[in-house]
């Protein structure tokens, strides 16, 4: 997946992707002279899209936008997050519907965020079942590291729970292990198109025996600046408990997310897994998880044999009875790990037992017991290379998990000023290799409103991160977990003067 959308001035565009344990490197330059190291320049334009939050009339949704302060951005720029428009018969956006929503004094049906300055969060709200998908663009000083969190609380009903997701950049391919079409689940794939032309996407489903036949999931049309929600159970005939969803885009680009609703276990968003890789990290399993299920899929032609380890606060642990996982090519495999964390912070690390075969993976995590249970999902994610941010943290209920699967790492965490006031704070932590730590968060002094957490590795091995947000209601431990991959707020650009001097020799 190419999740970063970047445009740079001076006619130069560069893109670097970081997945699994890979790292960026500067290619050698031909010639007798040695080229200068590529410059790290801030991106100048970023697009983010948020899915329609809920079909429940009881839903209350909070949006939080944040851009970290970055060097080299200049003083200009803007950011705006607006409701996705609806396509009319003549192919133009139906402004009359937008005008009607603008006139709605309680804001129902449309949420708009316009950040004022980097370094300070801005918030917005939406209510009920008519809240639309959102389309946003940040430019100039607002673009590098721009993060938007969508958090929805539904107090009752089959979809009750705390549903959270990071609004994401548009792309052309997505993997979602952990979906389901079982009778107790109602899972929708949300596809949002930010562009002026229609997008066309395909949805493929894979179960325990391989590809699930469907023609309904082919050629799905997503109008310009619009969003489509596709009920996964309508794409196939027989219910499947563990399903991997593969979204590919034939033309255009979309942002994709899966909303999973369980009749008894609540609901949450399933974010895409990182690109298929031989080794994967799934960070931030809650220490009080009562049930953890690992779902994995091998998209290639070869089977995958994976070693399963839990990175605990004291080091790596191999779950008894689940030391390895065999994933057949083109098939979805799942194992139940129970209460694998046993009261301590934990992250799952998957590595090949022999030959490396690319896989995608996610965790379904349950907290609580009986009729007081709640579900969240943790997809495999990439490392924090330079910086990552989690928005919408409150004075209580935020937990940050950091895991160093290899060497010991030193990490700086900064808490921004609050959306309503307060002074930023920061702390530095040392995460021992092979461990997961739920760190004590820095909290802005005089905090009012919500704040953002920015994670920046300082030295040592790779670091992976996840943030859990919880809000108990009626005895139900409602929660949601967002992984924190690198924000890709900078891009490597070769030094033009040095390249020209090499050519002149």
Model description:
It is a single chain. The radius of gyration is 22 Å and the shape is globular. The strands form 10 sheets. Strands 9, 11, 12, 13 and 15 form a 5-stranded antiparallel β-sheet that branches. The chain is built from 2 helices and 37 strands. Strand 11 and strand 12 (210-212) form a beta hairpin. By secondary structure, it is mostly beta strands. The two termini are 39 Å apart. Helices cover 4% and strands 46% of the residues. The longest helix is centred in the N-terminal third of the chain and has 9 residues, at 95-103.
Question: How is the topology of this model organized?
Answer:
Layout: E1 39-42, E2 45-50, E3 60-66, E4 77-83, H1 95-103, E5 122-127, E6 134-140, E7 147-154, E8 161-166, E9 173-179, E10 185-193, E11 199-207, E12 210-212, E13 220-222, E14 226-231, E15 243-251, E16 255-262, E17 266-270, E18 280-285, E19 291-297, E20 304-312, E21 315-317, E22 324-327, E23 332-338, E24 346-352, E25 360-367, E26 374-379, E27 388-393, E28 398-404, E29 409-415, E30 421-423, E31 425-431, E32 435-439, E33 445-448, E34 451-460, E35 464-470, E36 479-483, E37 490-493, H2 496-504
Brief description of this entry?
This protein has 505 residues and is mainly beta.
């Amino acid at each position: 997946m190419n999740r970063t959308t970047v445009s740079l001035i001076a006619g130069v565009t560069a893109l670097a992707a970081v997945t699994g344990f890979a790292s960026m490197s500067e290619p050698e330059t031909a010639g007798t002279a040695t080229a200068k190291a590529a410059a790290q320049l801030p991106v100048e334009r970023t697009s983010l899209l948020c899915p329609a939050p809920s079909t429940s009339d009881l839903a209350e949704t909070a949006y939080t936008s944040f851009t970290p302060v970055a060097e080299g951005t200049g003083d200009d720029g803007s950011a705006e997050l607006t409701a996705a428009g609806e396509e009319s018969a003549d192919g133009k956006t139906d402004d009359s519907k937008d005008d009607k929503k603008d006139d709605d004094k309680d804001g129902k049906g449309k949420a708009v965020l316009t950040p004022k300055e980097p370094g300070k969060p801005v918030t917005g709200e939406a209510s009920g079942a008519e809240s639309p998908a959102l389309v946003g663009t940040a430019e100039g000083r607002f673009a590098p590291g721009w993060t938007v969190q969508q958090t929805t609380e539904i107090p009752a009903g089959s979809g009750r729970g705390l549903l959270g997701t990071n609004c994401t950049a548009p792309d052309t391919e997505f993997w979602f292990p952990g979906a389901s079409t079982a009778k107790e689940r109602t899972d929708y794939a949300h596809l949002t198109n930010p562009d002026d032309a229609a997008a066309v996407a395909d949805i493929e489903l894979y179960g325990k025996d391989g590809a699930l036949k469907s023609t309904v999931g082919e050629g799905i049309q997503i109008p310009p600046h619009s969003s489509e929600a596709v009920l996964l159970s309508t794409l196939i005939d027989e219910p499947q408990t563990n399903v991997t969803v593969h979204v590919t885009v034939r033309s255009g680009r979309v942002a994709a997310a899966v909303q999973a609703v369980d009749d008894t276990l609540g609901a949450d968003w399933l974010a895409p897994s990182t690109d298929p890789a031989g080794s994967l990290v799934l960070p931030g399993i809650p220490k009080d998880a009562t049930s953890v299920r690992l779902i994995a899929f091998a998209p290639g032609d070869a089977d995958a044999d994976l070693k399963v380890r839990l990175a605990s606060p004291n080091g790596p642990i191999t779950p008894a009875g689940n030391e390895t996982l065999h994933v057949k090519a083109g098939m979805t495999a799942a194992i139940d790990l129970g209460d694998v964390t046993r009261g301590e912070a934990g992250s799952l690390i998957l590595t090949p037992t022999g030959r490396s075969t690319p896989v995608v993976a996610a965790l379904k995590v349950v907290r609580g017991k009986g009729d007081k249970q709640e579900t969240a999902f943790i997809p495999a994610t990439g490392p924090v290379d330079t910086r990552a941010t989690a928005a919408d943290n409150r004075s209580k209920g935020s937990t940050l998990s950091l895991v160093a699967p290899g060497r010991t790492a030193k990490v700086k965490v900064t808490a921004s000023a609050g959306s309503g006031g307060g002074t930023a704070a920061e702390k530095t932590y040392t995460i021992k290799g092979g461990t997961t730590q739920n760190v004590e968060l820095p909290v802005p002094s005089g905090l009012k409103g919500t704040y953002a957490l920015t994670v920046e590795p300082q030295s040592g091995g790779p670091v992976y991160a996840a943030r859990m947000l919880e809000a108990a209601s009626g005895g139900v431990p409602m929660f949601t977990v967002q992984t924190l991959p690198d924000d890709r707020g900078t891009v490597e650009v070769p030094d033009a003067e040095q390249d020209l001097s090499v050519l002149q020799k």
